[in-house]
Amino acid sequence: MTDYNWCHNPDCHIIETQSRVRGSGDNKVLRTIKIKQGRYNGYQNGIWDYFCNQRCLMDFIRTHLISIVAIAPRREALETPIKVEKEKYESQRYRYTDNGYQPQTYQATRTTIKSVDND
Ligand SMILES: [Zn+2]
């Protein structure tokens, strides 16, 4: 098993950066970036094991968008049952007066979305 991947952006090797330059003398090339697996310990489901950076990830998505969404098509909206709780509370804001900015108390509303057991 290899412990690295090549960046999956089909155009990674076209991007002009020093980090992609390989070879010597007159035989230099821009090469696809080699990525060490687990470099970010599975951060964001390991997506960075396959793409060297955000640009390459977005290039890949743009190139393969139709194929990617075809994997799990969404043809109708999904819904999650919730309860919305509204709660009044006293808060303060600053208003400009003849004495400069002064705190003023006012009634504020806090809206909280609560999940609902769906059994
Ligand atoms: Zn790349």
Which keywords apply here?
119 residues; alpha+beta; two-stranded antiparallel sheet; two-stranded antiparallel ribbon; elongated; binds zinc ion
The residue fraction in helices comes out at: 10-25%
- Taken in chain order, the helices and strands follow as EEEEHEE
Largest sheet: 2 strands, antiparallel
Task: Quote the distance from N terminus to C terminus.
Answer: 44 Å
The general outline is elongated
Strand order in the sheet with the most strands: 1-4
Q: What is the count of β-strands?
A: 6
Structural class: alpha+beta
| DSSP strand content | 35-45%
Low-confidence residue ranges:
none
Bound molecules: zinc ion
Number of helices: 1
Describe the structure.
By secondary structure, this protein is of the alpha+beta class. It has one helix at 54-71, and strands spanning 4-6, 21-22, 29-30, 34-36, 82-97, 100-115. A two-stranded antiparallel ribbon has the order 1-4. Strand 2 (21-22) and strand 3 (29-30) form a beta hairpin. The site of zinc ion has 7 residues, from loops.
